[in-house]
Design goal:
disordered N terminus; mainly alpha
């Protein structure tokens, strides 16, 4: 209590600089008087004090935090305080939140506010969105920037790609290749053409095994020959599990014996019931009994859907009763 009395004297004389850091441990320890003191003696005089306390209360009492942020903004606090208030208002009052984000940017928050603002307007104002993202990039907000740029790149924005190159890939001095891979993975289904370009950039990096496999997946329908070569290079680069299966699927009609070897090679790395069933199907063209045994093994390993169905299909000519029982068990 003596400490609070001394803080109160300082507050009455306008000396509130850094006071929240001194009072905060008391609030954490449940000293109710500390919270009341801070609200009474500091918040009424110093907008920053209100913002400090609001940040402290955000999770426990968001309603109170919002009121405190509003008081701080009214008292003249700008920048990050406006951003914090906008974050709490974004769902229920998006127009007011947008105003606050714009004010925050003008008053110094070029790190967080531009990203938040961009997310709110990206569907209706792509040019302004990219201006905001460029501002955030210059301020060093690379992580959030990446998340917002990716959808724009998927839609074909060349400027968004330029920003990603400049502020995400180039700024990650330790792992820029991984940022290329992140984008390629995101674009894999959304913009395959762009994803292919990005995968090619990784062919001479430590990520070549995954990149060549993913590249092969995207081109296998249009260029099966190139895809086979990509899968072979991916296998050579260490992608034993996925690239071997992908190559096996491409060659199983023309070279079932090699496909069987590849499926077995993949299973040696990691068991996968889907791959076991694919192996059984290819084996059926070479050795019916071995194929049946393969499906039985899959069932014993817990496959209660595909393996019984595949085994039943093979049993129809010689053992229709057992085949029927298997179909009924599914």
């Amino acid at each position: 209590q003596r400490a609070l009395d001394l803080f109160a004297v300082a507050a009455r004389h306008g000396n509130t600089e850094g006071m929240f850091e001194d009072v905060k441990p008391m609030i954490k320890n449940g000293v109710l008087e500390a919270l009341e003191f801070f609200e009474r003696s500091v918040i009424t005089q110093d907008g920053r004090g209100a913002a400090d306390l609001a940040q402290f209360l955000e999770k426990e009492d968001p309603g109170k935090a919002r009121g405190l942020y509003a008081a701080a903004v009214e008292a003249g606090a700008g920048g990050l305080t406006c951003t914090k208030l906008a974050d709490l208002l974004r769902d229920e009052d998006p127009a007011r939140a947008l105003e606050l984000y714009e004010r925050a940017i003008k008053e110094g928050d070029e790190f967080s506010a531009p990203i938040r603002c961009a997310k709110m307007i990206m569907d209706r104002d792509p040019d302004r969105t990219l201006d905001l993202l460029q501002l955030a990039g210059k301020a060093g907000n690379y992580t959030e920037l990446s998340d917002v740029l990716m959808p724009l790149i998927a839609d074909g924005s060349e400027r968004a790609m330029q920003l990603y190159e400049k502020y995400v890939i180039a700024t990650d001095e330790l792992d820029g290749d991984s940022r290329i891979q992140d984008l390629a993975t995101y674009l894999h289904d959304k913009n395959p053409h762009k994803a292919v370009e990005l995968y090619k950039r990784l062919f001479h990096t430590d990520l070549k095994g995954e990149a060549m496999y993913s590249y092969g997946i995207l081109i296998q329908k249009e260029s099966p020959g190139k895809a086979k070569e990509a899968f072979r290079m991916a296998i050579a680069a260490g992608n034993e599990q996925y690239a071997t299966c992908a190559l096996a699927r491409l060659i199983e009609d023309e070279n079932p014996a090699m496909a069987i070897e590849l499926f077995e090679r993949s299973l040696a790395v990691k068991y996968d019931s889907d791959v076991v069933n694919e192996l059984g199907i290819v084996r059926a063209s070479k050795d019916l009994d071995l194929a049946k045994d393969t499906f039985v093994e899959a069932m014993e390993a817990g496959d209660k859907l595909c393996a019984p169905c595949n085994l039943a299909h093979l049993l129809i000519p010689d053992d229709p009763n057992r085949a029927a029982d298997l179909y009924l068990s599914i």
